[in-house]
Structure formats: structure tokens, C-alpha cells
Amino acid sequence: MRAIYDWMMRMSAGPNAPYALALVSFLESSFFPIPPDVMLVPMVLADRSKAWRHAALATVASVLGGLAGYAIGYFLFDTIGRPVLEFYGYGGKTDAVMAWFRDWGVWILIAKGWTPFPYKVLTILAGAAHMDLASFMIASVVARSMRFFLVAGLLYFFGEPIRDFIEKRLTLVTTAFVVALIGGFVTLKFLV
């Protein structure tokens, strides 16, 4: 795993960095273990004027990779999807989560798809649950845009000093926001 991480860091500084970012973003959405942020962060810091371009590239590639994850779940769940989920520690929860996807798929993708939660788990489960493909695509675009543009925006406006925050505390902040957002919707549902 360390060798892959080191390769990604080397690639993020090279002339082919955008291609590598697109490849990693695509693969991470269906099975790859290391998130594209490992490349996105140093690429944006190297040239902040390209922050939005890099975020857009990561978003598009991630959503396309999400389609591959969806296809794995939809067509190859038992042969590929389940082993991938087991590798990430989610193999025993698939039936319950697929039931949630049937009822709340869009909201699950939006709520979890922009956090550091493994997006590949979501894409495979969405396919296995036979989630509506158009809804899957819309939710994926929203979630992944939020994810990558948040990281790029923080780096664009604050530069290197925000890097430590992104690497160590972004999970906590995004999780707290999602909990507050869902809590607000639940409160509105019961009050109205």
C-alpha cells in the first residue's frame, strides 16, 4: 500500500499529474483503496490557479468510476462486489444497507459521498440495490462535486496552512455537517 501511495505522490508533481488524478479518481470509485485527495492536495498547492480545473477533473472521473462501481454491484455483485465490500469491512452489512438504498439511496449518496467514507462501497451497494441510474448519477455529481470542490476551495483560499486541517480534521467537519443536515430534515419532517 505504501508503494502505491508513494507513486501517487510522485505522479502529483509530474507533467502527467492530471491524467494520474483522473485515473485514481476513476478507480477509487469502484475498488481502489487510496482516495484521490492524496494527489489533489499537492496538485492544488503546486498551482492554486488550477484548483477548480483539478476539482472538476476529479469529480468527472470519480462519477464515471462510480458508474463502474454501480455496474459491479448491479451485474457482478456476488463475484466481485461482495469481495470488495468484505475487503473494506462492509461485507456483513450488505442486506441492511441495500434496503436503505432502496428507500433513501439519493440521500445516502449525497450524505456519505462527499465525506471520506469509501465511495466505492456506496457505488457497489447502489448497483446491487438496483437504484435508479438517473438518481444515482445526479446524487453522485452532487456528492463528488461537494467533496472535491470543498478540498480545492479550502486550498485555494488558505493554501498550505489548511493542509493539516484537511488531512486530519476534514472527516470530523464533514461528518458533523451531514449529521446536522440530516437532523434538520428529520426535524422538519416531524414538525410539518
Describe the global form: globular
Number of strands: 0
Terminal CA distance: 50 Å
Strand content: under 5%
The number of helices is: 9
Task: Write up what this structure looks like.
The protein is mainly α. It has one domain. Helix content is 80%, strand content 0%. The protein has 9 helices and no strands. It has helices at 2-12, 17-28, 37-46, 51-75, 77-87, 94-113, 119-128, 133-158, 163-191. Helix 2 (17-28) packs parallel to helix 4 (51-75) and helix 4 (51-75) runs parallel beside helix 7. It is globular, with a radius of gyration of 17 Å. The chain starts with a helix and ends with a helix. 38% of the residues are buried. The mean pLDDT is 86.
Give the SSE map.
Elements: H1 2-12, H2 17-28, H3 37-46, H4 51-75, H5 77-87, H6 94-113, H7 119-128, H8 133-158, H9 163-191
Helix pairs in contact: 1-3, 2-4, 3-4, 3-8, 4-5, 4-7, 4-8, 5-7, 6-7, 6-8
Structure, briefly:
This protein is 80% helix and 0% strand.
List keywords for this structure.
192 residues; mainly alpha; 9 helices
